[in-house]
Amino acid sequence: MRRREFITLVGGAAAWPLATHAQQTGQVRRIGVLMGWASTDPEGQALLAEFTRHLAKLGWAEGRNARIEVRWGGSDVDLLHRFAKELIGLQPEVLLASSTPTTAALARETQTIPIVFTFVADPIGSRFVASLSHPGGNITGFSVIEALMASKSLELLREIAPGIVAMIFNPDTAPYVNSLLMPVFETAATSFNIAPIAAPVHSDAEIGTVVTSLGREPGGALFVAPDNFMTNHRATIVSLAARNHLPAVYRPPVFARDGGLVSYGADFQDNFGRSARYVDNILQGAKPSELPVQMPVKYLLAINIKTAKALGLMVPQTLRVAADEVIQ
Question: Which site from 33, 158, 175, 319 is most exposed, i.e. has the minimal number of CB atoms within 10 Å?
Answer without folding.
Answer: 319
